[in-house]
Amino acid sequence: MRWGMVIDLKRCIGCYGCQLSCKAEHGTPPGVFYARVLKREEGAYPTAQQLFLPVLCNHCEDAPCVEACPTGASFKWEDGIVDIDHDLCVGCRACMMACPYSNRYFNDAPQSYFEQGATEYEKARSARHPANVVMKCNFCRDRVRDGKPPACVANCPTVARTFGDLDDPQSEVSRLIKTRGGFTLHPELGTKPSVYYLPP
Amino acid sequence: MSASRAKYDQLIQDLRSELRPQREWGEGRGVFLVIGHFVVGVAAGTWLFGLLFGLREALALAFVLAAAGGAFHLAFLGRPLRALNMVRRVKTSWISRGFLGLAAFLVGAPLYLITESRAGYVLALLGMLVMMGYMGFVYTASKGIPFWSTPLHPVLYIAYALRGGIAGVLLSLVITNRLPEDPRLLLGLWILLTAAVAVLFVIELYGALTGGNPAARSSAHALLGGRLALSFYGGTLALGLVVPALFVWAGYAGQLSAGVMAAIGVASALGDFFMKYSTIRAGVHLPVWLSRA
Lengths: 200, 293
Hints:
Chain A is an alpha+beta fold. Chain A contains seven helices and nine strands.
């Protein structure tokens, strides 16, 4: 069993729904983005086009962040999800330097989105986000354990994201990767990401 | 605008840019890490040359520097009270190995200085070897920062540590008001190690500029003509190379006075600090976009 995600770049319309639903699900503080959408413009009028690249932790099979972590705070579950034990993290940020995909964030102080102070929702979520440790996406492991897909997958309005078992050749993710030529980011680094993209 | 708001805006701006500069090591509290790496490297080199030349004052200075370096490392951590957790991943993490090496040195060095025991000697020697090399390997393991992630980086850091060791020996002699028995040997070593550092650094810069990786190229440009040019040219080249070279020349030409030794030691060490500071600050994250994406 190895959880993985396939993102269809042809379907992605850059609505930031994944980013917002992730924020809503996890209540991450300002400056911490488990899911993001990169936007780029290419070409010139009349053939200019916008390109979108949704990014998140790649949950690499050979995760350099796990190797670099001196405490074991960054670790892999048996289902392939790379996670952080915030109680072990010392905040050295070596994992942030080791991650080739820039998908880790250091939460350096308790923060709120509003000048008036933390809302009730932020207070309720803040226990999950201790200060002075590194944070990242964990494929919404709590939801996955309950049989639900990650929030970004469930809330994508164009169904650009598919979640499933990469080890199962019959799964939808395996089929999409095989039939549509799924590729990963920076395959030359040998990290074997679990997030695949389908060409636009 | 509050500091946290400014930091947030900076992060958003960084996340939007194709080549995102790393800010965690080297900015804000990250400066403590740079100082820690610099001081620990000098400590290791000073211990080595202290042993070679039989200078107890250099050994004592190395211990003080290593202790200070450890304190700077702790000051950098987000959760310093959990530092003991860093012994858990010796098999894969160079930070973990460095932590153990520094701990071994901090136990072994005073043991050797006070009792001259073999156990203290071996512990301190092992710790010193790890302290010299681990920082370079930490940077090499940083796959997200191509400018650092080269096999040359550990060699460069070892060369820095050795050059810093000569500076440490000179300073320890000044502090104890002694003159070296053979000043030309020390100055000759300084010249040799400085040449080695310069050649290694030029090779690394050349590799970054011609290797085809846009992030590494951007780092090299930041050093040579961008946001870090002042600390590179002023700190690393002028203060760390030209000034001590003039004093070394003066030492060769005349007598090596305490003032000249102090000037060489301080300028050389400051140059090494700026070299580390500017190369760490120059780190740029690997761009995420691919031509296929």
